[in-house]
Design goal:
Blueprint lengths: L2 H12 L5 H8 L3 H13 L19 E9 L7 H10 L3 E6 L6 E7 L2 H10 L7 E8 L17
Antiparallel strand pairs: 1-3, 1-4, 2-3
Helix pairs in contact: 2-3
Length: 154
């Protein structure tokens, strides 16, 4: 990956809807060459997908919760099944297996506190192998950015 690929990635992270013509002008190569590079980055899995980022509150999801999960030591062999269960839950928008005081961190969105309680009681607590669940309610997210800058050497 050269500096032009990194420039392309930096620009696409900021604006995935940019036209190929504008992108090519910004990186200083022809439009066909730019399109070829983007396709190559997609094929290589460097660009995993393009998506729209939706504001949860504007579509009726007013609660965001960071959920810390600790597994029962006797159920550590069940980790693949537990990961699968987490991925099946629509309320879970991000899931991280971590090392430290807990085993998983989940980012959960819900319409309101009642919906979150229902999620906890009807879905999360029914997953075999969970020893403890700790919920932290998000009050504000002053930085919620999925973008990271790639150094281009310029």
């Amino acid at each position: 990956m050269d500096r032009i690929d990194k420039k392309i990635l930096n620009i696409l992270q900021e604006n995935g809807r940019i036209t190929n013509a504008k992108l090519s002008r910004m990186v200083g190569i022809s439009a066909p060459a730019t399109l070829e590079r983007v396709k190559r980055l997609e094929t290589a899995g460097v660009i995993s997908h393009f998506t729209a980022v939706v504001d949860p509150e504007k579509v009726g999801f007013s609660i965001m919760v960071i959920v810390s999960i600790t597994l029962s030591l006797s159920k550590l062999s069940s980790v693949p099944l537990i990961k699968e269960k987490f991925s099946e839950l629509d309320e879970v928008v991000e899931c991280y297996q971590i090392a430290g005081a807990h085993d998983f961190i989940l980012k959960v969105i819900a319409k309101d506190i009642k919906a979150y309680a229902e999620f906890m009681n009807q879905k999360l607590t029914r997953i075999q192998g969970i020893q403890s669940i700790q919920s932290s309610f998000v009050i504000d997210s002053p930085k919620d950015k999925k973008i990271f800058v790639l150094e281009t050497g310029e």
